[in-house]
Amino acid sequence: MTIPEVQRVSDHRIESVVPLMSPALLHHELPLTHELSASVLESRRQVEDVLNGRDPRLMVVVGPCSVHDPIAAAEYADRLRDQAERLSDDLLIVMRVYFEKPRSTVGWKGLINDPALDGTGDVSKGLRVARALLLQVLERGLPVAVEFLDPITPQYIADTVAWGAIGARTVESQVHRQLASGLSMPIGMKNRPDGSIGTAIDAINAAAAKHVFPGIDVSGTPAIMHTTGNPDAHLVLRGGKGPNYSAEDVNASLTLLHEAGLPERVVVDCSHGNSNKDHLRQPIVADDIAGQLEAGQHGIRGVMLESFLVPGRQDLGGDLTYGQSVTDACMGWDPTVEVLERLAAASAKRRAS
Ligand SMILES: O=C[C@H](O)[C@H](O)COP(=O)(O)O
Ligand SMILES: C=C(OP(=O)(O)O)C(=O)O
User: Coiled coil: which residue ranges (predicted)?
Assistant: First the structure.
């Protein structure tokens, strides 16, 4: 067989192949210092304590739907740090620093995949920019949340993460469940976009088990990963065809978890299917959840909010408004502070009861 024939057989639909640095090289360029490692470990411990009911606070995962401008994200982190400190008796605030966007069909896939926002796909630059921002957020004293979408990228960034999500579109995927079984932090399993909670419960069980699968190690070498299983995978209610945040929905989910022999704990996402992607509805959802906390609902261990400096969303393409989402619509800063205060007061009341 001639070389051109071999190429036709193997790379028929590959346009080009561009080398990528190894995770170890990126860690070398942008190291997690000893101090920051200690802070990640401490944040993970706090997240685990909240999820396991040893810490009565409410976890709030809050931040932009996606990061497209690291400068605006760093400004957001500055503001959020002040709130996290101020409300720390009642809330464990974790910043959404989401770089990987799962698309229903096609669309911008996030800053790691396409840091220039124009489809040129400079993944090397994307990983560098992402890791640099993650370190900046940690330096501000905030724990970090991401969605894990690509099975290769965790080796580049997961050492900085205190809470991870497997999204609604990938929660049924064996690849993602295996990945979750080996990740070092608690993982939220979202209900499927059609509302299926059983699929997320299957994912929690699958992630708790040991797995063996092919992956890459930190040097970038193909490796067979043997995982221990992740005991801290948990359900995230994000709504489906309709919302699923009501007291009845939460109780029904807790019952399903109980019947599956799993800890009765949920995180409720105020955005996505629970707000019908209308950012103005997120405070309404959060207020309902606050009411449930005040009524003594201990199964709700966390809340997710999509929030940025400027409310709403914009399309990529033209001149961009600083601090506004380019994916789903986000709450603006002032309503975010009001929602955090409402949730903090409800968390305090629940603790007192
Ligand atoms: O969180 C963001 C979006 O909801 C998710 O990436 C799916 O977006 P899409 O349906 O617009 O592709
Ligand atoms: C994509 C997200 O959520 P979901 O998987 O629930 O759609 C997200 O939180 O950014």
Answer: none
